[in-house]
Task: structure prediction
Amino acid sequence: MATQDVEATAPAVRIDSEPEEPRPERARRQRYLLWRIAGYVLFIGAWAFISSLTEPYILPSPVAVLRKMVEVVGRDDFWVNIFATLRHLAIGFTLAFVIGSAIGIAMGRSAYWDAFFRDYVMLTLTTPGLVFALVCVMIFGLLDIGPIVAIVLTSFAHVTVNVVEGVRAIPRELMDMATAYGVPRSTRIRNIVLPAVAPFLFTAIRYGFAIAWKITALTELFGQTDGVGIQIRVEFLFFDIAGVLAWAFFLVGFALVMERLVLQRLERRFFRWRPKAFA
Amino acid sequence: MATVSVQNLRKVFPGEGRDVVALEDVSFEASGHTFVSIVGPSGCGKSTLLNILAGVETPTEGTADITKDGSRARVGYVFQAPRLLPWRSVMDNMLFVQAEQTDQVRERASRYLAMVGLSEQHKAWPAQLSGGMQQRVGIARAFSIEPDALLMDEPFSHLDAITARGLRRELHSMWMETKKTVLFVTHDVGEAVELSDRIVILEKGGKLRKDLSLDLPFPRDPADDKVALTKAEVLREFEELDLIAT
Amino acid sequence: MDTTASSGSVVRSGRSWFQRTFVTPRAARITAPVLFLVAWQLRLMDRFLGLLFPGRTESALLPTPAEVVEAMWEQLLDGRLLEAFSVSLLRLALGFALALLVGSIVGLAMGLSSRIEAMLHDFVIVGLTFPYLIWGLLVAMWFGYGTIGPVLVVFIAGLPYVILNMSEGVHDVSKELRDMAAAYEIPRDRVMRHLILPSLSPFFFASLRYGLANGWKGLILAEVFAATSGAGWHITSMRDYGDFAGVVGFAIYFALFSIVVERLVFGRLSRRVFRWRPATGRDVSEPPEVAAP
Ligand SMILES: Nc1ncnc2c1ncn2[C@@H]1O[C@H](COP(=O)(O)OP(=O)(O)OP(=O)(O)O)[C@@H](O)[C@H]1O
Ligand SMILES: [Mg+2]
Result:
């Protein structure tokens, strides 16, 4: 409800192209940054303090985890496993994106396909990834496609729901306008359909990807193919908490970098036409 | 020279339960350098008529088309709302509807933007323009394809009186200059009398009520006796419509 | 103006009897699972894989629909199903109640104070990103098998969703109303009770929905490593014993459970799925405003 209200009361548009940042705004930002840093300091301090109270293998100190991360990167098979995971992820997510978009387009345009796929989509959105991981590992054994199929099955639905919304958001009145002027189909797709659907595609990528890399690690762990998942399992079996945490930070770091540096930057370039209303 | 030809046109929108008849047996013709206003109460099918002529909707029965020398004419359409692509700059919006993208076409687009007084804004996003400026881009866009005929759907109804008056004058002089066939939908009888040499009145249910020719010289001053008389006549026609409707 | 009959029949006359019966949205809801079952029974996937990977030997493992139905029937009769799900649901309730309590407090605090927001925001985002797999392994190492580990993972999995929704909810209370309250110097507790809490309810509902859904996913994973009971443990142990019909049967129970919860509790699937969207993505994840005529 709230999001719609925001849209309904379309905010006043600033005409000036590059608004000067007012001074109190800058001061506010600096204060915000200060407290943000304080948060990190507090967190790392608390972690170090608690770990000093316990046995080092129960909660290794931040420094120990950092040292472990350096050690892990130095291993012979580190890059082999990273690339195996990236390969699963790249193939699986590309497939999920293509299949999910195709289904989403069909669902957005036809009531029949909407009804046909609706239950599948809903199921894969709500069923725990473990279930898919297990069934895929069972069907495919140690084959490389186990993780890939699991990725497709779990993340296509996140792409689909967003693409469906995007297709339904294609502005009919602009398409009619293009018809009236006899604008050819390819021009129409490039200039109306894609820009209208783009924000939904970004959301689709964002959510699909967030699920995809997690399920990749999970299936690798159960399926014992090469990859990050199997490395985490080894650390677990050796009861090396620092090792598990080290891999976790690699994964989370990778995900955040993809989200912040790659996706957000692309988005900003894509959406320059938007009024800077939600400053 | 373009010819607008509407023959026994009928349009029915299938609705849930009962259908809506938007147009019922409408016929008229217009060709050459003429300015036809279409007036009538809200919901009488004016926009539907233009949409069918523009090829956006299909007729249920009958025909409606705009031809030039036997083949389909180039038609510019100014919609009730500006209908600009929000993610394209003003200039790119102009170029979007062009059949080809040569330098000559670009130059032509700039010229029409200048004509509506927006040459400085050619790089702006639509969201950075006021409502009236957006509508002017819509008008420039319609002219810039150098159409044989022009469809306009209440292009000035969302604007303030002063801007609307300025644009009306501009439209009139552009029409005089380019000698196009114009179909102009409006609610405003004064506007219709000021601009047109013919007024087609539709009534509720989409029937053609009256087809008046206006034989008055331009420019028309609303204070002029003849102009005021004609306006009063059309208004009387409207009041009768109201009596029928209620 | 009686046009109903004519145009109605015009639209339909183009469709044959077959199309009118089977090519309708209602029929599609049934066609979809039936096609799935047929494909499964014919082992289409298996044959396809056989073509792709000639050396593949695992095909014999895949159970037939009949075997799976039998396994499901057994699970239902001998009480394993009920036991597994009731244990898990209890853990879910426990962990999520905790997440709701802590998350509401933290979320409100973040919404009301920009300092607390600055301190915690990044950690909430990392919390959203952190895989449940890792949490499952960690609690297994810390607490061994038992109840604490899985309950803790439910808590951790649900927490960021509750926090984000509640703080978004506070942000959402219109600035004008809050300024009005400030202008009249209305006391804090009354502002809280009459202004902020009432407008939070849709966000509270969203917290419940996404917090529970993710708590459930986290729980199932945690039970694999850190429990000897519950639905997650159950399905993995069947796999370890090579009871593949049991695994697939249980997976179907998971799916049925999702459908029931989704249909009965939360209503139809909608774009509100992504309601909790954190503030970081807000500006870009909103659909574009297009001027409507
Ligand atoms: N796409 C559509 N589907 C169903 N009904 C429609 C559609 N478009 C128009 N109508 C109906 O057809 C009738 C005529 O609509 P139209 O838009 O042509 O009216 P109008 O004369 O332009 O009115 P206004 O002056 O208010 O713009 C109305 O009753 C309207 O409800
Ligand atoms: Mg209209």
